């Protein structure tokens, strides 16, 4: 296994950031690590990259224990933290050369990672002159310098515009063809596009661990988007059977969540008629990773 986590717990004072979590990641997998803000994602990534120690449990990367063999873990891992630390006054090649010295790798590797991460057009500039997207590429290039077997990426596309996001997403997917990638993100489309498997964490506990297709079958909720011709008092929705949640998204448009696989559109239509309402649109929304995430983290 590339990553093994066994009963890892971590406390910050009275707050339990991680609560006896366990999972494994096989060599060659691209795994999305999801959870709300404060769920414990970055804490676990810092433990796996030896920045902090767990209070309880064991973890290993590439067969190396994160406490007993920290240097071996660091050689095995390429890490891009959430807040990409860069020396903005250095030129791209200058910065990569500095890190190449730290990793004790040859200078020829600098040109390889520049080409691999698409940095060539901007490689003559200072890092401070680069766009957010290219700065993320510099961070990825740095993480790849020593050709690690495992990449741990914490929010690698934070703050990117749609074009930059697609570019970095494609880059990660390409890199992941021969490496293990463990990444956290809040962008569900990103996970659906590049990940083989998803682990969802909430309040320090794992609440889901499966491939995306299997996760779809785990959630037995149904979401219907309906637009009425006038405002509706939310108290009326209690008339609907199997209703689990309802959200007023825009004016007279509501998102209704039902805890059943039965098609509830006829019931919503009947509800409208019974209450003197007209349905201007009535759509059954497909299950997607966002639906699953919301269900698992409530």
Automatic annotation (TrEMBL):
Chain coiled-coil ranges: none
CDD domains, per the entry: ABC_DR_subfamily_A
Pfam family, one: ABC_tran
Presence of the UniProt keyword Cell inner membrane in the record: no
Keywords annotated in UniProt: ATP-binding, Nodulation, Nucleotide-binding, Transport
Domain ABC transporter: 3-228
InterPro entries: AAA+_ATPase, ABC_transporter-like_ATP-bd, ABC_transporter_ATP-binding, Motility-assoc_ABC_GldA, P-loop_NTPase
PANTHER family linked to this entry: ABC TRANSPORTER ATP-BINDING PROTEIN, ABC TRANSPORTER ATP-BINDING PROTEIN NATA
Family: Belongs to the ABC transporter superfamily.
Protein name according to UniProt: Gliding motility-associated ABC transporter ATP-binding subunit GldA
Source organism of this protein record: Flavobacterium humi
């Amino acid at each position: 296994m590339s990553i093994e986590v066994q009963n890892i717990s971590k406390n910050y004072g009275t707050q339990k950031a991680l609560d006896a979590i366990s999972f494994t990641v096989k060599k060659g997998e691209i795994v999305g690590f999801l959870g709300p803000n404060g769920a414990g994602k970055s804490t676990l990534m810092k433990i796996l990259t030896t920045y902090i120690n767990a209070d309880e449990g064991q973890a290993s990367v590439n067969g190396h224990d994160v406490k007993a063999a920290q240097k071996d873990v660091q050689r095995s891992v390429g890490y891009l933290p959430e807040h990409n630390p860069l020396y903005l006054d250095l030129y791209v090649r200058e910065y990569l050369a500095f890190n190449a010295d730290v990793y004790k790798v040859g200078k020829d590797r600098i040109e390889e990672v520049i080409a691999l991460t698409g940095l060539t057009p901007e490689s003559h500039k200072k890092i401070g002159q680069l766009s957010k997207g290219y700065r993320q590429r510099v961070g990825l290039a740095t993480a790849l310098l020593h050709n690690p077997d495992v990449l741990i990426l914490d929010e690698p596309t934070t703050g990117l515009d749609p074009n930059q996001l697609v570019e970095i997403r494609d880059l990660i997917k390409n890199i992941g063809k021969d490496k293990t990638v463990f990444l956290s993100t809040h962008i569900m489309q990103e996970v659906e596009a590049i990940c083989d498997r998803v682990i969802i964490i909430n309040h320090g506990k794992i609440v889901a661990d499966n491939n995306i297709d299997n996760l779809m079958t785990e959630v037995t909720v149904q979401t219907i988007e309906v637009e009425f011709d006038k405002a509706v008092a939310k108290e009326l929705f209690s008339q609907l059977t199997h209703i689990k949640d309802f959200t007023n998204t825009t004016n007279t448009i509501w998102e209704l969540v039902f805890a059943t696989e039965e098609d509830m559109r006829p019931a919503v239509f009947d509800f409208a008629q019974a209450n003197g309402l007209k349905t201007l649109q009535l759509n059954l929304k497909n299950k997607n990773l966002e639906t699953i995430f919301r269900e698992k983290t409530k």
